[in-house]
Amino acid sequence: EHHLQRAISAQQVFREKKESMVIPVPEAESNVNYYNRLYKGEFKQPKQFIHIQPFNLDNEQPDYDMDSEDETLLNRLNRKMEIKPLQFEIMVDRLEKASSSQLATLQEAKLLLNEDDYLIKAVYDYWVRKRKNCRGPSLIPQIKQEKRDGSTNNDPYVAFRRRTEKMQTRKNRKNDEASYEKMLKLRREFSRAITILEMIKRREKTKRELLHLTLEVVEKR
């Protein structure tokens, strides 16, 4: 920056470029001894850089996420049987989605969950207890949306609320006769161009067929 300001000042004073006023540029080094030590050349390019989840129902992930309380229950259940965190999340996720204002019963849980009866009973009792202690309507976080009766207008936690005031829209210009005639003329010209292109296509196709017939006649002669 210092050398740049000196060069600009000298050019403004002397009205010409002085040889002494040169902005220094660092030279690039070509022979670096530590290059092979830092870059060992063991990198192999993977087959694909972006991995996406397949769009099928088998690999669908549950919306419910475990917390520390769930981990405590999972450690206690693993003493008697082996259960994975993803398996537990799927079970709770199915119970949550099968219940709305009324909780699912134990018989419904056995139909929803294809697991051992002891595991279903333990997870169901834990889920019912946790659901009753939950302050919200569900254990899965949901976006709080506006109700249609308008009772949530003053709630600051409501997302995607409707606009109460009407936005001023831009007035549409009236279509005059001249612009309408221009659009009709443009449409006729486009239709004519399409017709000409179709005729050219048909002509070229006929010429190609004539050429093939001429070759066949020559070969037969």
TrEMBL record:
Subcellular location: Nucleus
Primary residence: nucleus
Family, similarity comment: Belongs to the enhancer of polycomb family.
Gene Ontology BP terms: regulation of transcription by RNA polymerase II
InterPro entries the UniProt entry points to: Enhancer_polycomb, Enhancer_polycomb-like_N
Encoding gene per record: Epc2
Cited Pfam families: EPL1 (PF10513)
Protein name: Enhancer of polycomb homolog
Alphabetical keyword list: Nucleus, Transcription, Transcription regulation
Example of a GO cellular component annotation carried by this entry: NuA4 histone acetyltransferase complex
